[in-house]
Every structure is written in structure tokens, then in C-alpha cells.
Amino acid sequence: MTFNTELLALCRGISQNYQARLNVIAKAHGLSALEGEILSFLHCNPEVDTPSVMIGLLGLSKGDTSMAVDHLVRLGYLSKSRDEKDRRKNHLHLLASSEIISQEIDRMRAEFLKEILRDFSSEDKKQLKDYLQKVFSNVTAQ
Questions:
Q1: CA angle 32-73-112, nearest 5°?
Q2: Would you write out the chain's pLDDT as a tens digit for each of its 142 residues?
Q3: Which of 18, 63, 78, 111 has the greatest number of C-beta atoms within 10 Å?
Q4: Whole-model pTM above 0.70?
């Protein structure tokens, strides 16, 4: 395989493996995969709390995301508040009832990283982080 193919396959494999693990957590709590993804994203990125930014970063459907957010609000996992400066924007906030799911996500993410970075030294991990930050910067600059 070419390097390009290997890189694309790696990204897809990591994403699918992570998503499968997240889906197990979501299903255990009676949530859809998208609802699990939203809770996970907000837990891991509390500073990115608007649906529009989340949709753009994750490549989600606006309609599906809106329905999932509304369902999470009804279930008591999220609250929504209007932006004081731009009334068209909503901010999403995790509620205390999402804490159990957040803890499970944290454990899953730690185990996932432990597995995929097995046999990496601390220096290897630092270099990988630096390289991935460069790749992310290059991708987002386009």
C-alpha cells in the first residue's frame, strides 16, 4: 500500500474503533450513536459549546444534530441557553446527570489510547503529538 492509502486507512480505522466503543456506552444508556457523540464531544471540549461549531467540526447533519440535542435536553443530560450577544446562537451545557456517562467516556478514552499507543515511549508520544498537531494545522488551514 502507498503511504497515502496507509494514512487514510489508519485514520478511518482509529475513527471506527473509537466510534464503536463510544456506541457501546451510548447504547448502555439508551442513547443513539449521535447522542453519545454529542455528549462525548461536549465533555471533552467544553469550550466548543455551540451546535453549529460542533456540526462543522464533526461533519454532522444539522437536522439530526438538532433532534439529538433536543432529545438529550428532554432526557436531562443537556441544557441550552441563548447567547447574550447573538440571540441566534445556543450554548449547550452538560448537566450533572451526564456525569456517569462522562466518567465512562473518560475510562474508555484512556483505555483506547493505552491500547493504540502500546509500546510507545514518552518521547514517542510527544513526537506523535507534535506531528499530529502539524497535520491538524495543515488540514484546518485549507
A1: 45
A2: 899 999 999 999 999 999 999 999 999 999 999 999 999 999 999 998 999 889 988 889 999 999 999 999 999 999 999 878 887 888 999 999 999 999 999 999 999 999 999 999 999 999 999 999 999 899 888 7
A3: 78
A4: yes
Beta bridge partners of 78: 94
Listed by start position, the domains of the chain span 3-140
**In this structure, what are the phi and psi dihedrals at residue 71, rounded to the nearest 5 degrees?**
-65, -40
CB-CB neighbours of 69 under 10 Å: 21
State which CATH number among 1.25.40.10, 3.40.50.300, 1.10.10.10, 3.50.30.60 fits the domain covering 3-140: 1.10.10.10
- R_g of the chain, CA atoms, integer Å: 17
Helix (H) / strand (E) containing 15:
helix 3-28
